[in-house]
Amino acid sequence: MAYEDLRDWMAALERAGELKKIRTPANPILEIAEITDRVSKMSGGPVLLFQNVEGHPGSQVLINQFGSARRMNLALEVDSLDQVADRIRHFVDVKSPQGFLDKVKMLPMLAEMGKFFPKTVSTGPCKEVIKRDNFSLLDFPILQCWPKDAGRFITMPCVITRDPKSGKRNVGMYRMQIYDERTTGMHWQRQKVGAEHYREALRTAAATGRVGTSDLARPARANSVRAGVDIMARTSGGSVLPDGERLSGKMEVAVAIGTDPAITFSAIVPAPPGVEEYLIAGFLRQKPVELVKCETVDLEVPATSEIVLEGHVHLDELRTEGPFGDHTGFYSLEDLYPVFHLSCITHRKNPIYATTIVGKPPMEDGWMGKAVERIFLPLMKLTIPEIVDINLPVEGIFHNLMIVSIKKSYPGQARKVMNAIWSLGQAMFTKCIIVLDQDVNVQDIAEVTLKALNHIDPERDIQFTLGPIDSLDHSSRLPNYGSKMGIDATRKWPSEGFNRPWPDEILMDEKTKALVDSKWKALAKDLGIA
Question: Which site from 105, 205, 388, 398 is most exposed, i.e. has the minimal number of CB atoms within 10 Å?
Answer without folding.
Answer: 105
